[in-house]
Amino acid sequence: MAPTFLEKSKLSRIQAKWRSLQQSGRKAVIPYVVAGDPSPEVTVSLMHDLVAAGADMLELGVPFSDPMAEGPVIQKGHERALAHRVSLRGSLSAITEFRQNDVSTPVILMGYANPIERMGYAVFAEEAAKAGVDGLITVDLPPEEVETMNAELKKVGIDNIFLISPTTPSERIPLITAQASGFIYYVSLKGVTGAANINTQEVAAKVEQIKSETDLPVAVGFGIKDAVSAAAVASVADGVVVGSALVSLLGNEDKTIESRCKDAVALLSEIRSGV
Questions:
Q1: Are the C-beta atoms of residues 59 and 9 closer than 8 Å to each other?
Q2: Is 59 a catalytic residue?
Q3: What distance in Å separates the CA atoms of residue 217 and residue 28, rounded to the nearest whole number?
Q4: Could you tell me the pLDDT band of residue 198, with boundaries at 50, 70 and 90?
Q5: For residue 1, what pLDDT is reported?
Q6: Residue 197's pLDDT band (cuts 50, 70, 90)
Q7: 70 classed as catalytic
Q8: CATH number at residue 125
């Protein structure tokens, strides 16, 4: 029998985190924020504060002009970051700075294929590894087109994380899981980020189906807004991803940037407690 992800001798930082979580009986809490939102000056300190509040891993969004999978809240986060001229290289710079004081928390870069393709897969993989990136989610790159990128990521030990949604045909799930490493990100809702309420029973059924095809952990995102929804999802999955709820607080222009960050960190802390 092939070794499971917990038994492999050489684990990535993401895989090691999952093993630690499983051994301690905990579920992962993974916050998502956009690099440079609400201000480039606070991105790194916000990342540290989220870890202190209980984040097990971090997802850092790369600002992009056409974030097609995002709802209005995160689209505005991308717009705010782009107004500060934050790019893929700026996102990598933030991770480099974060790594000066945190060498253990896994950091996942989440974005779209265009900026990576413009940089070039080999150059991107090298620069991302140098910065301290552990995983990559490329929202609009299907598994049929990922072979070249995967080859470069594997050279530098970066996990390639894929999305599966409620509308993913059953026959495509093994195709996706065969290309993935680190974990599977299950999108709990049809539509874009920040959409309606989660049906926990439907999520549980889909997570079970995914797990029948892979031994990778499954984290669930989209629609997790508070401790209650996070706890419900965590009861049927290995971890939860929270994005829109945090980015909404970071975009509250009625408050100072410092207050917005404090509100986002406080929400993450509540979610950690709930999970």
A1: no
A2: yes
A3: 10
A4: confident
A5: 33
A6: low
A7: yes
A8: 3.20.20.70
Three-class secondary structure assignment of the chain = CCCCCCCCCCCCHHHHHHHHHHHHCCCEEEEEEECCCCCHHHHHHHHHHHHHCCCCCEEEECCCCCCCCCCHHHHHHHHHHHHCCCCHHHHHHHHHHHCCCCCCCCEEEEECHHHHHHHCHHHHHHHHHHHCCCEEEECCCCHHHCHHHHHHHHHHCCEEEEEECCCCCHHHHHHHHHHCCCCEEEECCCCCCCCCCCCHHHHHHHHHHHHCCCCCCEEEECCCCCHHHHHHHHCCCCEEEECHHHHHHHCCCCCCHHHHHHHHHHHHHHHHHHC
Question: Which of the following is catalytic: 7, 41, 59, 147?
Answer: 59
Measured between alpha carbons, how far is 114 from 119 in angstroms, rounded to an integer?
9
Tally of domains within the chain: 1
This prediction's pTM? 0.91
Residue from 70, 145, 147, 258 carrying the catalytic annotation: 70
Structure tokens at 144: 């049929």
Residues 74-133: pLDDT tens digits?
999 999 999 999 999 999 999 999 999 999 999 999 999 999 999 999 999 999 999 999
Domain around 134: 28-188+199-274
Q: How far apart are CA 264 and CA 17, in angstroms?
A: 23
What does the mean pLDDT of the chain come to? 91
Q: Is residue 15 part of a domain?
A: no
- Whether the predicted pLDDT of 47 surpasses 60: yes
